[in-house]
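## Example record

The block below lists the input lines for one assembly entry, exactly as stored, with component labels intact.
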Amino acid sequence: MEFFVTLIQVLDSTVRLATPLLLACLAGLYSERAGIFDIGLEGKMLMAAFFSAAIAAVTGSVWLGLLAGIGASLVLSALHGLASITFRGNQLISGVAINFLASGMTVLIAQSWFQQGGRTPSLFGGGRFEPINFPFAEALEGVPFIGPIYSELLSGHSILVYVAFLFVPLTWWILFRTRFGLRLRAVGENPAAVDTAGVSVVGLRFAAVAICGILCGIAGAYLATALQAGFVKEMTAGRGFIALAALIFAKWRPWHAMWACLLFGLLQAIALRFQNIDLGGVVIPVQVMDALPYILTVVILAGFVGKAIPPRAGGEPYVKER
Amino acid sequence: MTVPAIELKGISKAFGPVQANKDISISVAPGTIHGIIGENGAGKSTLMSILYGFYKADKGEIWINGSKTDIPDSQAAIASGIGMVFQHFKLVENFSVLENIVLGAEDGGLLAPSLAKARKELKELEEEYELFVDPDKRIDEIGVGMQQRVEILKALYRKAEILILDEPTGVLTPAEADQLFRILDRLRSEGKTIIVITHKLREIMENTDTVSVMRRGEMTATVKTAETNPQELAELMVGRKVLLQVDKVPAQPGKPVLEIEKLSVTDSAGVERVKGIDLTVRAGEIVGIAGVAGNGQSELLEVLGGMRPGQGSIRLNGEPLPLHGPGSDGQARRAQHIAHVPEDRQREGLIMDFYAWENVAFGYHRDPAYKRGLFMDNAALRADTEAKIEKFDVRPPNGWLTAKSFSGGNQQKIVVAREIERNPDLLLVGQPTRGVDIGAIEFIHKQIVALRDQGKAILLVSVELEEIFSLSDRIAVMFDGHIMGERLPAETDEKELGLLMAGVAGEAA
Amino acid sequence: MEKMPKWADVVLIPIISLLLATILSAIVILAIGENPVEAVNLMVTGALGSTYGWGYTLYYATNFIFTGLAVAVAFHARLFNIGGEGQAMLGGLGVAIVCLSVPWPHWTIALLAACAASMIFGAAWAAIPAYLQAKRGSHIVITTIMFNFIAAAFLNYMLVNVMRPQGSQDPATARFPEAVHLPTFQSMFSSAENIVFRGAPANISFFVAILACIVVWALIWRTRLGYEIRAYGHSETGAVYAGISPVRITIIAMLISGALAGMMAINNVMGEAERLVLNSTEGAGFIGIAVALMGRSHPFGVFLAAILFGFLYQGGAELALWTSIPRELIVVIQALVILFTGALDNMVRMPLEKIFLSFRKGAE
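Predicted structure tokens for the full assembly:
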């Protein structure tokens, strides 16, 4: 029974940790499905984390914070679009620049705004997303098995967690059941086909990059206003890259993205709870858990376990022939 | 006089320093097939891309059905009833036929009703024009002929009244091409206006009502097809009398230089491109490989040039050559005295951003003659370049220009100079005059014949039947990875080769 | 036809890009309520106004020369090696192992051995992404990013669990023995009465870095291997035609790149810290990207850009000391440089090309 309790706790923590990964991963999915590689997920999340925490701290409203976070992330998205769509620059280099820009600007602004060494003030009350308790969560807690699953694992997360997981079927539906999805996938495979069919490649790609910005904004806001209570320097801690890894792991498909993010979230949860794991004499150091998402991604990329083929036009700026 | 379906007035377009279209005017009557003919690079495709809104003209007006129309993008072109089938199809390869047809012409935000409606309309279109395709097949599962039908259906689904086709027969066999023109004929009888871009005189003569000729970005003439003849059109195309025949003495074939037995080539996608062919090329002869593009000729040349692996056996002067693994790359082939003028000089034969003198070493950069100590002997290389520029009359005669600064003809001269001056036992030549001006064509042809007369073996691949006829001492025809037959130029004609190229084998052909 | 003269491409565009980055940085400084002119003054005096400042500037520059060259060599083969950070970390590990495990009689031999070790370790860390790119088509940008994280975890493990001296709480190796300490600029250039570069970390590695610039220049522009690397970088199909193996070039270019990034460790680990600590690279691997972009992948350009970034780093540290502007300002400037010289290159280039074209038309 104690094992079961621990399991529920670890899974509960998995869900929390998977949420920002999932949001960022879906963000990347929209962008990359449209043919725009985005290694700037990390930067966008970080910027959003800072602005959501800052605005939430100043106004006391977490909702305004969320909006500010999305706005900040959208500004960086626009920059990425400007560089990689309008000026047909190198999407990877643009992503690198955006990561640095966010890393520097957040601390710079935080320092000049709050003078707390690059942090925002701690958030409390209306400045944070509070957990939502499902009906009868408390009453059912005592019921064996189902009780803890319902009241611990499913209930008691912030609204953004549920939003993130709702985005999975929604994304699937948009991608495969709507006109926008058809065009989005087409523009990532063969932009010339979209262009000659009378649809604006630039418009579609900007739309995709904007959706990416919104989702990264939510992811960042979740980090600073729900998972933690305020912004600290470099608080994304490589999550943008893990999300990128999950995206490749999922081969750019929404449902698979969810499972990949849950897996990587689980690794983080285990590393957080157990540190070094003793498996009957063999000790797995915590660093292995830290590195595992990246190692798994390299294995997937290497094509030893199913080949990850990105959208065909990905990474290439669209230039009409000549 | 009826109102013209299309009228272009004074269209000009420049790409950077290159003037692709100069003050072009043209008028096409409704319900006719209009041909636009010209050499590669004459500006035909640019002009039509402007009409389709793919490029924007610097100057000029477009009139559709008598009213001035602004076509800033393809959407506007579609709205004006224009459809275009590009030379390189614009299809999403991992989408179904139906999805490709619907893309950009959906009704409403949800896919399901759009697809259902398209399926129904497609059926009607198919029956009306005999354009049968399976709507549920993926594009990468169907052949190029089918893909072209999808492109035509795409235009018809968008209610196109004007249809532009850019080099539609380039990838088709003669039989498929005939079928295409039957379809176009049917479209014309339904009142559609059709513009066909081509550089093939025969297609123009047989299928069009009127024809315009383009040369170097300018429109040189527009005439009724019935009132002209191929010679006149050819002169208008190139600007002076053409020498279609290369002066050469009969070949004196010697011992076999290249002996190919049961050669097979499988590409990276796992498709077998060359299917067990046998072929011999002797010293002092030019063997020409004829065929529609994409029937394995390119792969054959690439295997011989060490660019991709193959199966089977090749002997050079009696010695076996490895076809895969060590000793089968381009460096090894050069060491074995095989020189290679590749099909695509811009992507293969030259590094466009390298100086001419750097390109003169390309492929031979490990030659000890270009080496001094640890380093490359750039001075020797530049001296060598000057000699080659002079001998091959490369213009401008400046080795310090990057390859991309030269015209197509002069680029090709650099490649040909580099390869021929190696004095190889075997010269592989792919599309030697593609996109090359007429003066350079003559020059290059003469050089190839001169090499033959020195007793070297030459294997020529060209999709230009005319070039095959004028250069080859022996012609082999490839279709679907097989050699369909060998003929002597004097004992065959275009019709027979055409049948072989379409895969119709047998002595009766 | 060339759209504009070569000098415009090589000199004018980077200068305009830099100018744009500078203007934006000035606006940022203004926005956080500081005076940009004063800030520049402080940075110049702090970084260039004394031999002490120069000693730091050149120390940072040495790091950036190595990582910049690393990125530049890979760029020539059209490979984006974003893994300089991880390769430099591993280089540090190699240096630490060499310095700690052998009783070196003299720093000269130790330096040679450390160079070799750092190159081998750095190259080894680049080898797996290189192999995967060449043989399996795995995108090198993604794999090198992943390898940065794996390197960080690996180094963390090595320092915490393996190399940490007994009794120490600090995740770091023991100090290197006296014999392997490299001569600093202070010991090299000071006389009895005039002590210069006092306490600054610049050391003999700077000259190794200059040597590396020259070697890379000769390699890229004078050797057959360099010819092949550049040819492959311009056109893969062309390379195959010429019998240049893409697999071979990809792997060799990445090994050289990794080795150069690894070599940074002789400066920061052996020359400065004299032991291996966590996060010893301090992001220098990433700055290499900015340096290579700005230096147009040419060793001389890389050298100049590295000095510039060395100046920014030292100047930024001084700023953080004397004003309320945090060091992160440098990260912002670095981001802007990458943005303008890399991603927004066309924004600067397209109008310039138009101007040159109209000039030419006017001249005709």
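Chain A has a mean pLDDT of 91. Chain A touches chain B through 25 residues (CB under 8 Å).
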